[in-house]
Amino acid sequence: MSESASNDNVQYPRTIFIRRHSVVTRLTHWLNVLCLSFLLLSGLQIFNAHPELYWGHYGANGDPAVLTIGSDDDRGTPSGFVRVGGVQIPTTGVLGVSDVDGEPFARAFPSWATIPSFQDLAAGRRWHFFFAWLFVINGILYLGFSLLTGHFRRDLAPATHELSPRHLGREVLDHARLRFPEGDEARHYNALQKLTYLAVIVILLPLMVLTGLTMSPGVDAAFPALVDLFGGRQSARTIHFITASALVIFVVVHVAMVVLSGTWNNIRSMITGRYAIQLKGPKS
Amino acid sequence: MSTLFTRRRFLVGGTLGASALALSGCDVLDQNADVANVLRSAEHLTMKAQRFLQGRDALAREFDEKDISPSFRVNGTSAPDSEDYLELAEGNFSAWRLKVDGLVERPREFSLADLKGLPARTQITRHDCVEGWSAIGKWKGVPLASLLRLTGLKPTARYVVLHCADELEQTLDGSGRYYESIDLIDAVHPQTILAYQMNGDDLSVGHGAPLRLRVERQLGYKQAKYIMRVELVDSFTGLWGGNGGYWEDRGYEWYAGI
């Protein structure tokens, strides 16, 4: 853009800063990053204590498993595998068998993915439940604040026209071409963002908490309906794992989008609240 | 392009490096007693919250016969190896006596026949291991509350300690001996029983013969097997590691409701 239109003594294109995120959104966002990181890595430590998933009320060694991360010992050479349904995939080096101090070691998730790095279920549980409480308190603050201030209605609820297949289709194509909204359109989340954030906030994160609570015999006594909702403690454990995996995928895509659509601008807006927008002209 | 490339490399490298630092940092933090204490504060919160939500008498789910696990995993000790226990087992536990003492009004001993003569409760419940697996079994036994009514409690009694015959860790001082404890709220809960039967048969050695605890709103490690003695205490001081149980002395929560 070489030509810069002059209008009302304002030069275009020009950069303006808008207030993108409220202080509560920013604080709860980063606390969430902290909590979910610890929850994931300590969760993998807990999973390693019994690296098999089942469906229904009960499930233990010998019962039919939905997923197994295990190891075989082939004449002294350990090999790791993941078995889903009837399919067994070799995963030596990462899952089932991975190096600990340079030696292949039978553990479901590798030491670089667990807190603590060595096998210690008791410690993993301490980290997990501490950050689970912090995560729940943080989440309640965020939900309460967002409902009170209209954050959901104003920023996250998609408008009817945004939900039309044509509009969504165009946004999907734009995202695939890495073309992101500019100018006034960048003032708000696009429809894919709104839908994704809502899915995470309203479905995935509550699902994590509820399936986590359903694994607790104490909570099950207080709220038997939770057990019915998920079809048993072992189903809840499996859903907990699947939902955590979905959250990991979300974070990977989310961080990729942050980087691709303007790393520093995005990160600054989540720290200071200020978000830069390029205005090309009065009519753009 | 080259600056972008190096910036990206810097970002990726920086992120990986920071994660590695954070992870090894966690191991350091994990060993720090103050950090461990902060993390442990969540346990009290969990217990308070669960007790508040449950009330005293909320029952753990009871299942039907058809829900019973086809095989119930034997966990922890599969057979205590002390001479005394082997002798008792060979005699079909006819010489076994359950001692109930400590802060009780009338210390007593019960034979297996005595216990079987008392009103029993049968319950089909889910056993939840701290590791993550579950198994459903049918338990029959004497409500702990009935025993405590027979012995009476001194006003200072606060916890019920179950002393077991199995040694999970071989140590010279005997600190590897299994024991567990619950407070009086769980002790008098209707589903808290001293079970002598599982799935219709006398308790097998693997599952804790002749007597084990069922405290259904807590995890598997609380369900002490091979019970020899029930002691009422006012605190855990002086009991092995002082944390109220074998696994508790090894870092696990005393309140195992989650």
Automatic annotation (TrEMBL), chain A:
Predominant subcellular localization, coarse grouping: membrane
UniProt subcellular location: Cell membrane
Record's bilayer topology term: Multi-pass membrane protein
Pfam families cross-referenced by the UniProt entry: Ni_hydr_CYTB
Ranges for domain Cytochrome b561 bacterial/Ni-hydrogenase: 20-273
Transmembrane as UniProt keyword: yes
GO molecular function terms noted in the UniProt entry: electron transfer activity; heme binding
Sorted UniProt keywords: Cell membrane, Membrane, Transmembrane, Transmembrane helix
Annotated transmembrane regions: 27-47, 127-148, 195-219, 239-260
PANTHER family named in the record: CYTOCHROME YDHU-RELATED (PTHR30485:SF1), NI/FE-HYDROGENASE 1 B-TYPE CYTOCHROME SUBUNIT (PTHR30485)
Name the record gives this protein: Thiosulfate reductase cytochrome b subunit
From TrEMBL, chain B:
Domain Oxidoreductase molybdopterin-binding: 94-234
Gene3D superfamilies cross-referenced by the UniProt entry: Oxidoreductase, molybdopterin-binding domain
SUPFAM superfamilies the record matches: Oxidoreductase molybdopterin-binding domain
InterPro entries for the chain: OxRdtase_Mopterin-bd_dom, OxRdtase_Mopterin-bd_sf, TAT_signal
CDD domains named among the record's database cross-references: bact_SO_family_Moco
Name of the protein in question: DMSO/TMAO reductase YedYZ molybdopterin-dependent catalytic subunit
Superkingdom to which the source organism belongs: Bacteria
PROSITE patterns to which the protein is assigned, alphabetical: PROKAR_LIPOPROTEIN (PS51257), TAT (PS51318)
